[in-house]
Amino acid sequence: MATYRPIMRDYKPVPARTQPRAQWMVWFVAGLGLPLILVALMLPDQNQPPPLAPESTSLVSIGPVQQVTKPAKTAALITTTEKLISRKIPPLVAAPQPEQQRTVLTVRRGDSLDRLFRRHNLSAADLAGIMQDDLAKQHLRLVKPGDEIIVLHNDGHISELSREINFDSSLKVSREEEGFSAGIIKHKISVRQVEAKGRITSSLYLAAAEAGISDRTIMNLTDIFAWDIDFVLDIRRGDEFRLIVEQLSRDGVAIVEGNILAAEFTNQGEVFRAIRYEDPSGHSSYFTPDGRSLRKAFLRAPLSFSRVSSNFNPNRRHPVLNTIRAHKGVDYAAAHGTPVKAAGDGKIIFRGKKGGYGNAVILQHGGNITTLYGHLSNFNRQARKGSHVNQGQIIGYVGQTGLASGPHLHYEYRKNGVHKNPRTVNLPKAEPIDPALKADFLRTAAPLINRLDDTPLVLLEANNSGDFDITNSET
Q: Tell me: the pLDDT tens digits for 6-27?
């Protein structure tokens, strides 16, 4: 049988296949050798002496002591280490706390606490947490216009809230780890006596402001002398006044004036003085230096700080009817709604519309005396026909009802049915001080009278804080 061999198309011999080299040995040696080399490099030099102290160290041996010199590399390393150790490391400083914002919430008409918080972008959740505290809820549940609530917060999150409860105490609410807690802070209250005095150059209000006297105190002054001085008509340029009054301070800061202890008012050259006296039962009133009560049965004017637009005049021409018609009272021009006070203790015998008087009130007093108040815009709801009113109690409000050309009060004073001029009629006097208390009153009045006598009258300049001009009178 014939044997065939493959045909060689390129007529070249087939090269023999070469066997693959053993490369695994190379990788094994490299993988094992490199770590060993690194370990060897990390080991300390056997010929290098051990680390020495910063200064030259003497080696102790049985034989003679030999001085060993530090190698250059070791000395450099030690020097660098010493510099690092000696370098002052600044103390750790706590991260600054975010600055708190202080916001005063002023209550307006119709406001609630929730509305106040929403208006100032304060956390409603914090408000809910605050109201969980019974004490906080008790003093924050009701707010009225004019109230102020002080809040410390960080971007609306409450940290502290406070509110004045009364003159000597405040509510304080603070954030704690588990919510809010509330407490009452008692303020330190101190009282001292201060003096104020002034001279009227244009108006009583301006003179009081220049003397540093608050509106409240000047109103109290006019109430003290209301039975002797008509502050609507009788005040003149050059009239003078001086006061000894309590000044109340809270936590060392003057806040408000208290009671007027002694007062003097010089009106058109006539001097009026008043001393405050409190009897053993706690009742207080004002008396002249010799113990006569300043309080009389009737006030000279039934409203404060207005102007007389028409005096008592039997031959006056009526401004509306344009005829000669007797004016049997006094007209006090005042702003619409100004309170009208009862001139004396009495009983309301008429309240309603009365012809040209418009809305009117008539009071029956002792001694067969009646007073009439006309052109009122409205009545005090509590002052009804048949009810008893006290001197100074509000019975109505200035208006323009009836035959009136503008808002004013028409006031009449009648005795036994006959009209009298309210500004000049002799008014019945009140009872003097109890004879059993007169000696005690004179002891109380003496030092106050001496201070009024010894203090020269000086026109004071008002200061920005509204404080009084203070003399050496602290108690």
A: 555 554 555 555 555 556 666 6
